[in-house]
Protein: AI-2E family transporter
Amino acid sequence: MNDRQRITITTGSWVRAMVVIAIAYALFLVSEFILVVITSIVIASAIEPATVWAKKQNIPRLPIVLLVYVFTALLLAGLFYFLLLPLIDEMFNFIKTLTIYSNSIIDGGILSDMFKTQNIFGGLDTPIIIRELSSYLKSLADFFSQGIFSSLSLIFGGVLNFVLILVLSFYLVVQEDGVGKFLKIITPVKHEHYVVDLWRRSQIKIGRWMQGQLLSSALVMILVYIGLLIIGIPHALLLAVLAGVFELIPLFGATLAAIPAVFIAYVFGGVTVALIVIALYIVIQQLEGNLIYPLVVEKVVGVPPIISILALVIGGSLAGFLGMLVSVPVVAAVMEFVSDIEASKIVKVSETDKSA
Structure:
C-alpha cells in the first residue's frame, strides 16, 4: 500500500517566502554599499596590527593611524610614478614591436615551423591574437595614464565609493577595537562573540597569506628583472612584472611567465639567447621552489594558493577590483567557519561515544 503525502502551502508560508524575496531584493539594491563596507572592514583590519604595536609602545592611536594612511598614500604615489609610468612606456614600446613578433611567427625559422599553419590554441589566427593582445595592453596603459587619483577612483567604483572607503576604514581603525564594535552592532547578541572571534582568526590568516604571497612575488620580480637586464632582453620591466603576477598562480605560474620572455629572447637574439633565458627562469624557479617559498610562504601558513586564486577570479568576475580585494578575506572567514563546524562535529561524536 502506497502512502500518499499531502503538501500544504499555507498563507504563512507565502508570507515568509515573500519576506525572503523582499530581503534578497533589498540586499541586491544595496549590494554596492555592502561591498564598500566589507572593503572598509578589510582595510581597517589590515591596519589594526600597526595600532596594536603602537599600543604596546604606549604611542597614541590617532597619530599612528594618520602615519599609516600618509605612508600608504606616498607608497602608492611612488609605485605609480616610479613603477607604473615606466611600465606604461614599456607597454607602448611592446605594442609597437608586436608586428615584429607577429612576422617572426610567420617567417622566423623555428617559430615558422612551429606555427606554419598560423593557427594556435585550437585554430585561432595568430594575427588576431596579436591584435587582441595589443588592444588589451593599450587599454591597460591608457587606464593607468589617467593619473593616480583617477585610476584609484575608477578601481574602487567611482570617486564616491573611494571617499566612502577611506572615511569608513579610518573611522573603524581610529577607534579602539572599531571593527569588533561594528561587527557586534550588526550581529545578533547571541552570535556576536563568535562572529568577532571568527573575524580575528580570519584576519591572522589573511595577513599571513598576503605577507607570504607579496614577498614571494616581489623577490621573483626583482630576480627576473636583474637577470633579464644582465642578458640584455628588451621589455625587462614588463616581463619582470608579469613574472611577479604569475607567481600568484601555483605550480604553472613560473612556466607561463617564461613563455613570452623566451619568445622575445628568440626574436631578438636567436636560439642561444633564448636558451640562456630558459636557464635563467629555471634557476629562479628552483630558487623559488626550494628557498623562497619554504622560507617565506610555508612559514606563514594562510589560505592555500589554489583557493586564493579561485577566490580572486570569482571575486573579480562578480564585482571587479573590489570583489578581488574582499574575496580572499571572505574565503578565509568561510574556511575558519567550516573548520569550526567540523571541530564541533568531532566533539559531538566523541561525546556520543563516551556516553555510549
In short: The chain has a mean pLDDT of 75.
